[in-house]
Amino acid sequence: MESIIPFNKPYLTGKETHYIYDAVNSGKISGNGKYTQKCQQFFEERYNFKKVLLTTSCTDALEMAAILANIQPGDEVIIPSFTFVSTAIAFIRQGATIIFADSYSDNPNIDADKIEELITDKTKAIVPVHYAGVACDMDKIMYLATKYNLLVIEDAAQAIDSFYIGKDGVKKALGSIGHLAAFSFHETKNIISGEGGMLVINDSRFSSRAEIIWEKGTNRAEFFRGEVNKYGWVDTGSSFLPSEIIAAFLWAQIENLELIQNKRKMLHNCYYDNLQSSNLITLPSLPPYATNNGHMFYVVTENSEIRSELISKLKEKGYHAVFHYISLHSSAYYSDKHDGRVLSNSDKFTECLLRLPLFYELNEVDVVDMAKCINNY
Ligand SMILES: *Cc1c(COP(=O)(O)O)cnc(C)c1O
């Protein structure tokens, strides 16, 4: 049977084409124009990010971060195994050796207590991934970074409008804590531009070089601000900046951020309130230092057979539930390069994590119905 309720449906606010039309009419549709700057400024101000550059994807933002971190062949980078390929590939392209870390037993995020034992003389960076928009333990991770002089690059692809509450009680936006951070506006995320992303630069040592890498290795951005009287090729780089058409689309989403976030969080809470945990199904738990940004709702089943049966049961009722990452340490590309450590929590989430539909236009009645279907299992 064809699914009636999809896993995701991109939400359009209605203003996207209006702003795209405006960008097109302005005659300036390449990158770094009015809409790019409006978006960048919005994020800098709202989330206390030092500097933001829009990119064509989160993958690109991670690639920029790997270049800025000056990752060289043989350098080691610690990342969780339970993540999307982009987290690893950006560093692989610079020649890094990826040291995969395990997740917590009750949360897919990197287990911050098991990072220190992975640090060697070759370690250059830690890349925490805020899975489902839930914060990693940033105090512990930043402490290790200071102790061993490492860079922290947050993969905040799913973490827009989510926060970390530090031991000092101060609430900080995810993406504002690491030296660098990468976000995604892919159509599966909370706010979208089809494909799109941004790099956040919190450590000002990287600010001017980031602009150069962003603009094909040239100092064009400085030139346009009148800071230098000619521009040319000064460094490595690529074409990482999106066109104004994409930024204009994103601006319409930004204007509706509050609305989108409230609805998504409401749906998330609705799942949580209606589902019962049992010995077969565990509900997600939020660490005391994290907030919920309504990016994703998942359950963890006792074993993979239960997950398959739940997927079929939901499908019979017209609901499309899906699993998620296959641990990267056991991927076709990397398994023979992995050092052989068993990452049992990562494997457990590979086999047992089940994501339920969550998108702006999803109805509460469907959430209640899906919860009932799972409770009755
Ligand atoms: C979506 C996602 C990415 C990739 O984002 P793109 O914008 O598609 O490149 C990277 N990491 C994580 C954790 C993601 O969820």
From TrEMBL:
<dbReference type="InterPro" id="IPR015421">
    <property type="entry name" value="PyrdxlP-dep_Trfase_major"/>
</dbReference>
<dbReference type="InterPro" id="IPR015424">
    <property type="entry name" value="PyrdxlP-dep_Trfase"/>
</dbReference>
<dbReference type="GO" id="GO:0000271">
    <property type="term" value="P:polysaccharide biosynthetic process"/>
</dbReference>
<keyword id="KW-0032">Aminotransferase</keyword>
<feature type="active site" description="Proton acceptor">
    <location>
        <position position="189"/>
    </location>
</feature>
<protein>
    <submittedName>
        <fullName>dTDP-4-amino-4,6-dideoxygalactose transaminase</fullName>
        <ecNumber>2.6.1.59</ecNumber>
    </submittedName>
</protein>
<keyword id="KW-0808">Transferase</keyword>
<feature type="modified residue" description="N6-(pyridoxal phosphate)lysine">
    <location>
        <position position="189"/>
    </location>
</feature>
<dbReference type="GO" id="GO:0019180">
    <property type="term" value="F:dTDP-4-amino-4,6-dideoxygalactose transaminase activity"/>
</dbReference>
<dbReference type="Pfam" id="PF01041">
    <property type="entry name" value="DegT_DnrJ_EryC1"/>
</dbReference>
<dbReference type="InterPro" id="IPR012749">
    <property type="entry name" value="WecE-like"/>
</dbReference>
<dbReference type="InterPro" id="IPR000653">
    <property type="entry name" value="DegT/StrS_aminotransferase"/>
</dbReference>
<comment type="similarity">
    <text>Belongs to the DegT/DnrJ/EryC1 family.</text>
</comment>
<keyword id="KW-0663">Pyridoxal phosphate</keyword>
<dbReference type="GO" id="GO:0030170">
    <property type="term" value="F:pyridoxal phosphate binding"/>
</dbReference>
